[in-house]
Amino acid sequence: MAKDNTITFFDLALSTGATISPFVWATKYALKHKGFDLDVVPGGFTKIPERTGGVTERLPAIIDDGKWVLDSWGIVEYLDETYPDRPTLIPHPSVAAMTRALDAWFWGVATGPWMRCNCVSYRDLANADDHEYITYSREKMLGQTLEAMQEGYEDRLPQISAALEPLRIALRESKYLGGDTPNYADYRLLGSILFTASVCQNSPVLAEDDPLRPWIDSLLDMFGGLGRHPGLFPLFGLKQREGDPPLFMPPGLGGIHKRNTGIESTRAETQRITEGMAKA
Ligand SMILES: N[C@@H](CCC(=O)N[C@@H](CS)C(=O)NCC(=O)O)C(=O)O
């Protein structure tokens, strides 16, 4: 059991002091959701094995009263199992399944693409002793130079914003993915958004009035403003240029968007889609 309510947390941060990794951000929120104080072990990318006594090359990692727990999912499972009387992160197995699907979708449409829009900044904002490792390893991972990968980001950012419509649709009906209060699904996606905020120094990534903003802002404000680190860059303020797709859409009208509350609620649509049709 956590001594003095404190858990040792191995951070992964940039020279700005801001946490960078989506996994590490999500875990920071998960620990706070459970009500713990963090004893943060600071550091960047190189020397993770040295910092962790040879236990891991990847972060997040925590030590709870002498017990090492690795991996963002491993930590969340451990916290819910070990502290069932504290607020639950994954209140039902379906939340884990759906969060994995949502996270994989978000990774494909946003986390990865935003990373490629900011990969030079990612390297340049890292601690100086991380630069060589980040350049080499990320170029190997992504198959191009960081400069080539980042080039043209201005044209890609609007497309990424436009692709987030499924999330906007969900959050139009619900304050959080967890319902009235956040759960791990919220923190998991927020982790990717905060990762982006730690590196998006060349441009914000979402419109000033993006419908996702109240959800994001409210999560950034939680736990004493955990997501308001001064080293983070503004997320909101992307402008739609000529030729760009709309950065977000108005509420839709089709069956997936609109509740059927009886014949009046669908009359206009039926009229529109049957106009000109021969009467039986
Ligand atoms: N499956 C692991 C993945 C963790 C991971 O890949 N962490 C990256 C940061 S995003 C890391 O520690 N990288 C260190 C490195 O690149 O050397 C988890 O969910 O915790």
Notes on the protein architecture:
With 280 residues, this protein is α+β, with helices and mostly antiparallel strands. The protein has a domain at 3-82: Glutaredoxin. 49% of the residues lie in helices and 6% in strands. It contains 12 helices and 4 strands, in the order βαβαββαααααααααα. It has helices at 22-33, 48-51, 72-82, 93-117, 119-125, 131-142, 146-150, 153-162, 165-173, 184-199, 213-225, 263-274, and strands at residues 6-10, 37-41, 61-64, 67-70. The protein has a 4-stranded mixed sheet, covered by helices on one side. It is globular. The protein starts with 5 loop residues before the first strand and ends in a 6-residue tail after the last helix. The mean pLDDT is 97. Glutathione binds at residues 12, 21, 23, 45, 48, 58-60, 71-73.
The residue-averaged pLDDT reads 97
Number of strands: 4
How much of the residues is beta strand, in percent? 5-15%
Helix content: 40-55%
Based on the structure, what is the oligomeric state of the protein chains? Answer: single chain
Structure ligands = glutathione
Strand arrangement, largest sheet? 2-1-3-4
Structure described in brief:
This protein has 12 helices and 4 strands; from the N terminus they run E-H-E-H-E-E-H-H-H-H-H-H-H-H-H-H. By secondary structure, it is of the alpha+beta class. Helix 4 (93-117) packs parallel to helix 10.
